[in-house]
Amino acid sequence: MRSTRSRTRSVLSSWATDCASRSASAHSQSSAGDAGIDLLIDALNDSEIKIRVKAFQLLQNVELEKVKQVIDKGIPLKKGDKLYSVYASDIDYNDEFYNLLDSFEKAENSCYAGECELIHKISCYVYKNQAKAVAKSLHQTILSCTKLSEFCRRYNLQINEHEMNHLKTLFDYTDEYMYELNYHNGLATISDLNDFCIFNDIPLESRVAQEESWDFKDRILKHLKKTRNYEKLSLFFDLLQIGKFAFVEEEIVNQNGYLNNGKI
Questions:
Q1: Which of 43, 86, 225, 243 could bond 55 through an S-S bridge, CB–CB 3.0 to 4.6 Å?
Q2: Residue 23 — pLDDT band, cuts 50, 70, 90?
Q3: CB contact set of 83 (below 8 Å; sequence gap of 6+)
């Protein structure tokens, strides 16, 4: 078993080097030989998911029918594999505020817990940093109300109608109710807000004795949205602890299957 795995790692390494310097050509394929290709196919059943992922990626460069047949379904998953899932948040409300539900814990404690599916899984990834990058991009996409089609194309995602409708609902809330999203009052004093504007070169300052902190907070939100400064708008969300429109959860696969374009 140890020698087989060592050989598999060796083939993976040599193919990674080869594919980095050559296009996916017949010459590249023949340099590995049928034995190398067969070993990579066998590696799709390795106990380590990262070995399976690497083998899958390398086999995508091979234009052979027998390879196409085994990779069409996606990356093989085994029970017990660890994945990182990107979820789109939801918005709950009470008599005073709209609350951004950006975790399972918040969803379970919401007013409508158990009555509907509050948060929606968008995609799954083997690597945490990749999932976090997609979640950050989705948050920015919703915050800026930019085209979802561009986001999906960037990450090669297939979003079904139910998921798309949920994301469009978040767009509507962002556009109409951003100023009513709940935030951490203790982090939104006049002094804190003035410091944020100074540090981030935002040409606003509080109107002493003329406005409360929440009025100043809304002016900052309106300014950042009007000027389309979405990077600083995201920072302002972080300052106020409003939350994120997307988040990542670590999950364990409960049955064998396949991961294909972010979907199980």
A1: 43
A2: very low
A3: 77, 124, 125, 126, 250, 251, 252, 253, 259, 264
Asked if 98 contacts 173 with a C-beta cutoff of 8 angstroms, the reply is yes
The span from the CA of 260 to the CA of 247, in Å, is: 20
| Tokens (6 digits) for 234 | 């995201």
Question: pLDDT digits over 198-227, tens only?
Answer: 999 999 999 877 888 889 999 999 999 999
Read off the tokens for 65: 């029918």
Q: What is the DSSP string of 184-234?
A: -GGG--HHHHHHHHHHTT------TTT--HHHHHHHHHHHHHHTT-HHHHH
Strands (E), 56-129: 75-77, 82-88, 90-93, 98-101, 120-125
> Highest mean pLDDT: which of 89-98, 105-114, 182-191, 240-249?
240-249
For residue 85, the cross-strand partners are 124, 249
